[in-house]
Every structure is written in C-alpha cells, then in structure tokens.
Amino acid sequence: MKIIDKLAWLRVEDGKILSTRSYGKDAYYIPGGKREAGESDHEALKREIQEELCVDLVDDTIELAEVFEAQAHGKAEGMIVRMTCYRSDYKGSLKPGAEIEEVIWLDYSGREKSSMVDKLIFDWLHDRGEL
C-alpha cells in the first residue's frame, strides 16, 4: 500500500466548508497540500494555504482536528491518501491563487462533488453538526 501524505485546512462557516477546484479538475478538494523537505505540518500548511488562497493562517490558532485515510482520487487502486486536518483562523481575503480555478463554500450536498477522503471529512463534520 502506498500512502500520499497530505495536510488540509478545515474552515467551516455558517454550515459550509471552504473548498477549491484546480484548473482542469472535476472534483473539489479541501485546501492544503504536501510538505516540502524539512517543513513542519504548520509551515507546510501555511505555505500551501498562502499559495492556494492568498491568506495567512494565524500561528497560535492552528490546531489538529483529525486524520482521515481513503483511496486517492484518480489514482491506482490501493493508493491511499492520508489527510491530516487542521483548523485555524486566517488573515486576509480569500481568493484563488496558484493552480486554483474556483474557491467555493460547500454545504453537505457538496460531498458528492468531492474526493473520497473529503467525503469522509464531510461525513465527520456532518456527524458533529457542523455541516
């Protein structure tokens, strides 16, 4: 089993979760990405969110939410994505950055437009009464 290790920023407001769609993709993804060599989770997440959404996460508000694993979207069977999810406040105005075509707030019905691991996150948030 091969694991793709990723980080994600869970931002829920008014019963909707912040999500993105990259150029040329058909699914929505919770924003985040992969660590670069030597980066901590916080450093990598802050960099990815700045690149994707043009906002800065607030250091002392970053906290671990949960870790999810599922079949990776569009990858060979057995390729698993492990999504370590964090919550955080942010500074700035959300707007599409590098590689991002669309920034959207999805309610629970948006689950069907999302990757497999994101569906687990939608369910987790829904079970907690957040979506």
UniProtKB/TrEMBL annotation:
Cofactor: Mg(2+)
Domain Nudix hydrolase span(s) in chain numbering: 1-127
Keywords on record: Hydrolase, Magnesium, Metal-binding
Annotated InterPro entries: NUDIX_hydrolase-like_dom_sf, NUDIX_hydrolase_dom
Protein origin, superkingdom: Bacteria
Keyword Transferase carried by entry: no
Keyword match Hydrolase: yes
Pfam families in the record: NUDIX
Coiled-coil portions: none
Residues annotated as transmembrane: none
Gene Ontology CC, one term: cytoplasm
Any single GO BP term: DNA protection
A GO molecular-function annotation: 8-oxo-7,8-dihydroguanosine triphosphate pyrophosphatase activity
Family: Belongs to the Nudix hydrolase family.
Name of the molecule in the record: 8-oxo-dGTP pyrophosphatase MutT (NUDIX family)
UniProt lineage: Bacteria, Bacillati, Actinomycetota, Actinomycetes, Micromonosporales
